[in-house]
User: Fold these one by one.
Assistant:
Number 1:
Amino acid sequence: MDSADSRILLVEDHEDTREFLAVLLAHSKYKVETASTICEGLKLANAHAFDLFIFDSMLPDGSGVELCRRVRKFNQRTPIIFYSGLAYETDITKALAAGAQAYLVKPVDVTDLIQSVENLIGKAADSQSLEKQAV
């Protein structure tokens, strides 16, 4: 899948980080929508199709893990990356158990972030293509 066709929902409460990531991803030709709360993120995730979600762990109205669990109730396919300052093994384990595919600890090298995004979007696209062929 060409990155120009890929849509990403970024849920991050820190304005500077949210803007930086949105610009970085847009520069890599992704279409990015942003939210700063669980409530905003859920509204967007319900209203639009995305190829990838990127969630922070700590949001003003709850945890990213809570957001991940709630998204997984209606969307089991779209990959989720956590981009978080929480680096304890228990934080990572909770996020992955809630349905995330990757967990990156801030700060992360931007090339590692873009590579993770590309890998997960590519895997999801390949999986959907195989499912269509099987039908």
Number 2:
Amino acid sequence: MTGRCMMLRGRKVRVDGKGLVSLDDIFSLANKPNGKAPFAWYHGNKKGAFVLAAHDRVGGSGGGKIRISDVLRMGSAENGGWWAHPIVAASYAGHLNPSLKVDVHEVWLRYKS
């Protein structure tokens, strides 16, 4: 990751000030497969339970340290699209393409170390 983006397969994927990754950029990188946009992924596959589990894992349970919007959110008008914690972004990438999920994990783990 560099600055406000990470390099994934030679392309920039935006990262916001809170470290959330643009799911729309990952969707574009995967050539926008039909029926797999972030909105359809979240609502069509009942990912709410997964997002809640990710929220709890990264510090949301037992003290309310973070909000759900710190794990997955729709952006504002100036920063539109879907944004997700890297754990959730990797899950979405896996929905698009299993090897893309591995790439997201690898880039994030490199950044964290």
Number 3:
Amino acid sequence: MQFTPEQLERMRQIGLELDRGGTFWHEGTAVAHPRLRQALLRWLDVRDDGKDIVRLDDKRYAYVTVADAHLRARSARWEGDRCFVLWDDDQEEELAYATLRLGDDNAFYATARGKLRGRIAGAAHHAVAERIVEVPGGFALEAAGQRWPIKPAP
């Protein structure tokens, strides 16, 4: 059976939302199963046109409305002068220093997994903030042998 592009677009609108706290909602009901939530977090992606999706592969994906950030940092740790962030999808990666931004509520934001928005607050925020220094015109993070300016989040 072949679907028209319009039919495929309608089928991709499944009523999935991700709130600021990291709860997925499907048509107003919280996604409560922890393994399904983890799978959805791992499937998060951003299309080339900027639309947020959960992706199984190039053809199978659905749209998701993301209220704030795709991922939230569960923790951050320093290894020498490098900072590693554990995101709530259970993946750890080195902080993308050049993308670090400061939000209105003093949470940090940085790119996660190459193109997702990651929010760094709570204990992870405090760990990252250990290496922040004041510089002319603002603040910077000293990491990986450099000073990385921290800009306001858009």
Number 4:
Amino acid sequence: MQTLKVQCSIDAKPGKPFFKTKDSPKLTYEIAAIIGLTSSSFSGTISLCFNKDVFLEIMNNMLGEKFTEITDELQDGAGELLNIIFGHAKRVLNEQKYDIQKA
């Protein structure tokens, strides 16, 4: 929430996080960023997924330009946003001895 507020001037409301399983509801989105994670007790991925309108609004605010389509260059923004979020979360969680690293 802090990253979206600081980097994108968006006051987002968190939903409930969940572990994706074979029985999870199918998610629909137009763009996603994914990072592999590893620690001493687990490995997996974390993803940040957006529908087109939400992603474009975030990028418009983050970059100070008006975008109407997801271009190849703009796609990098999803990965960069996840890297910022992951970097902050990793620092906080590792201070609590979770030993999380990028895979």
